[in-house]
Amino acid sequence: AQSVTQLGSHVSVSEGALVLLRCNYSSSVPPYLFWYVQYPNQGLQLLLKYTTGATLVKGINGFEAEFKKSETSFHLTKPSAHMSDAAEYFCAVSDAANFGNEKLTFGTGTRLTIIP
Amino acid sequence: KAGVTQTPRYLIKTRGQQVTLSCSPISGHRSVSWYQQTPGQGLQFLFEYFSETQRNKGNFPGRFSGRQFSNSRSEMNVSTLELGDSALYLCASSLRNRGELFFGEGSRLTVL
Fold this sequence. Notes:
The structure holds 2 protein chains of 2 kinds.
Chain A: E1 3-7, E2 10-14, E3 19-26, E4 31-38, E5 44-50, E6 56-58, E7 64-68, E8 73-78, E9 87-95, E10 104-106, E11 110-115
Parallel strand pairs in A: 2-11
Antiparallel strand pairs in A: 1-3, 3-8, 4-5, 4-9, 6-7, 7-8, 9-10, 9-11
Chain B: E1 5-7, E2 10-13, E3 19-24, E4 31-38, E5 42-50, E6 53-57, E7 64-68, E8 74-78, E9 87-94, E10 102-103, E11 107-111
């Protein structure tokens, strides 16, 4: 069974500061990993994904994440926070070895607040 | 290219009633998944359909059901509504079997 743990349900950073949202996963097979963002009263939007290959992946809005197999982590970072980054962020994992399995297992989310 | 469209966006029902939610995927996407989002339980997988066949099902009671039509549009139904069914129901579609889901804005169900 797969699982995702997001450390910190709420994170606050100052505008211009580094954003770091933590995600650890558990999977018995090589995982596909994702970060999604959700703005109020909206659905989820894909920020970035890791499937295979390069372990540092870049996404939209200046975000990036690094897949570290030894640490089973996929932390999300952004060098300089912007007010528009305030939202809820979800880390998710899928069972890549089970071809055709569209099911994503989500973490509980991290609400990011940006302090002016 | 139009995104995933869910209707209705908001609805209020009373306990014991049933509800049907609709989802139109992105054109060309044949896989449609449904998720329930609540403050307490977070995002939970309901089921996934591909070419009118349910390929995967989450751990929900039989009151929750779904189907997919030949044009890939999908519906989900919840019968005998309970207060705990109040949630945001999210539909997502995908083009390939790699978990890159494209979500709609959701249908917010309130059960009174």
